[in-house]
Amino acid sequence: MNHPYPIMMNLSGRRCLVVGGGAVAERKVKSLLQAGAHVTIVSTEFTEGLMEMENHADVVLYRQTFDPLIMIDKSSDFTAYILVVAATNDAKVNAHVHEIASRNGQLVNVVDQPQLSSFIVPSVVRRGKLVIAVSTGGASPSAARKFAQELDNAYGEEYETYLDFLSDLRLLIQSRVADKQARQRVFKEMLEWDVLAKIRDGTFESWKEKLYITLEKEPWMQE
Question: CB-based contacts of 193: which residues, under 8 Å, 6+ apart?
Answer without folding.
Answer: none
